[in-house]
Amino acid sequence: METGLVTRTRAAFFSIFFAMTMPTTRFGSRRWTTPAPLWTVVMLAILARPSSAEAHVKWFSEFSFDDRPLSFREILAPLFFLLWGLSVAVSVTLTLLEERITRIGWVSRVDDWFASKKEHSLFVMRLGAGVTLIWCWQAGKLLAPDLSTEADWIVWLQIAVAILLVFDRTVRLAGAGLLALYVLAISQFGFFRMLDYLLWAGVGWFFLAQGAGKDRVRITALPALYATLGFCLIWLGIEKLVYPSWSKLLLEEHPVLALGVEHDFFVSAAAMVEIGLGFMIMVCLQERLLALTISLLFVLTTLVFGREEVVGHTLIHTVLIVFLFSGPGEAAPPLHWISDLKWRVPATALAFILMVGMLMVPYTFGAAYVFEKRSRHAREGAIEVGEGANAPRLAIAFHKDSVTGWNLELIAENFEFTPAAAGGDPAPGQGHAHLYVDGEKVARLYGPWYHLRDLAPGRHTISVTLNANNHAALTVKGRPVEASTEIEVLTLPE
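Predicted structure:
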């Protein structure tokens, strides 16, 4: 039986669909329902349906770069190619419909109304960035909800930048301050982690370039803003493909987000939706209609995640409002450099394919590098607990599940599972466990039971180690506190 939230979410999509397909246009003496808005909303609805879970996964889910990322080869499954092909088809279709849609009367009037607000774009951007910085200062965060810092002077620097945004004459200085904050964040959290928030660099450049005397510098302000926002959406979409366990943990806690769809499929589909939307922002495809659609999706997620979701996405909402007011700006959108539609369509498809491929490769290799580095650090930082009757001990047992897969039971002595303290300081006899299949870490375990299902036919070695809150391995006389067993899988999991 559907929950009220699922019903409201689906009703919202149908209401939008109905409202946007009602307008008509005149051909000669007769009035006909215009098909272009219908097909546009159909395509955007296809993109939108699974993306109601497009919250930033790291803000609401237990995550750790100690978790094993999927390799490039593992990601390239048939489902990925199917969704990739569908996304290419949607992008091509929207490219074909773009010019027809802009000629529709009501669409043109809406565009003109938003364009009349163009002069407010800079004020809106200053307000959105300032509000976000003030919230981060109040929460002790650096630029984002998941970036905690103990360096008070950096937190206060955010307030200084927010104050600079108040005055017209100091906006460019605030832009330089944002770029400095981004560099400081890289020094604390690493370049790979801060690629999630490249938008802050785009916002900083936007403020710097807006007041530039040279036109060739000033016209780069909006493209930089859209390019970095599009990149962040694509990058976080790829994150869902490389670390699917983070999203699936979120779906287990909030199953309503999946709208009844199987979780593995939902995560892959949501990832490709986010990638597709990011690409369309970067190339300014369907401009204002796209901005309205994405804003609606992020508003829907607030029904589940509440205040933190609103605050965390304030900067994105702000850029989308700027997109509504300013459109692509003075510089022609990238795909519009190709004036002939018959060439623009294949160029769109090729650009999407190359964009995804070019970003997936560095992400997968970067994730693998970070995983190996942190794994080595964890091995070197093992915590010796000593011998004796109070030393933690571990045994494991497997039970065939009545439906599919196996249930792994952890029998731990002198040890308490403390999921709420994961990532914190180590405490005696507390922590969690790490699960390894054939020598590769596949999950963190926060309790004595775990359902294991995705194993290929053959013999597999299953190992579990006990770890402190900070993920360091617990050892006795230098040997990890662990348990291992082998299981034989005769058939594929159901």
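Summary: The chain is about 55% helix and 15% strand.
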